[in-house]
Design a protein that fits this description.
alpha+beta; Pyruvoyl-Dependent Histidine Decarboxylase, Chain B; 4 helices; 9 strands
Length: about 180
């Protein structure tokens, strides 16, 4: 059997940063999220089997500055004064812990934080439901919360981490990030 890296724990975090430079604004958002000291590697949307979701306070001490850290990361930036922006990650956790779940991310200008959070949960529900054979997933609106327990028996719970903000009034870059960080 192959000895592969499979995360056993993860935590959610989010942040917002503002600066005249877009890259520094992103750095400030990572600082607000408490993850700027890591070399972040973006990965796709799978919640590994038996992966425990912990708090940042539990997870951060396990990581070292400069470490390569895998995460699902959503980010959005704008330098338009007052423009709403949002970044969200949502997860669908299967009832059977030996199965994998899904993490979805969304970033954009189109939704408020609550709607984006619901939207990412619904995307994760849809991906997990189709992976488990429930192929009759309904279409949904971004602000519509599906009752996943009654629709899909394979989903234990869903949750999201969402960061919204409005573009800085002075026109400086505003960046929002939301991440699922693997340990």
């Amino acid at each position: 059997m192959r000895n592969a890296f499979v995360p056993r724990r993860m935590f959610f975090t989010r942040g917002v940063g503002v600066h005249q430079d877009k890259l520094v604004s992103f750095e400030m958002a990572l600082r607000d999220a408490r993850i700027p000291q890591f070399n972040l590697v973006r990965v796709s949307s799978i919640l590994p089997p038996h992966c425990e979701i912990v708090t940042p306070e539990e997870g951060l001490p396990e990581l070292s500055p400069g470490e390569v850290v895998f995460c699902v990361l959503a980010e959005q930036a704008s330098n338009e004064s007052g423009r709403p922006i949002v970044a969200s990650v949502g997860v669908a956790v299967p009832t059977d812990p030996s199965r994998y779940g899904y993490i979805a991310e969304h970033h954009g200008f189109d939704l408020c934080a609550e709607e984006a959070g619901i939207y990412t949960e619904q995307m994760a529900i849809t991906m997990l439901a189709t992976a488990t054979g429930d192929l009759t997933c309904p279409d949904f609106e971004a602000n519509e919360r599906l009752e996943h327990d009654s629709i899909y028996g394979h989903i234990e719970r869903t949750l999201n981490m969402t960061q919204g903000a409005k573009g800085d009034e002075a026109g400086r870059w505003t960046t929002v990030v939301s991440a699922a960080v693997f340990l």
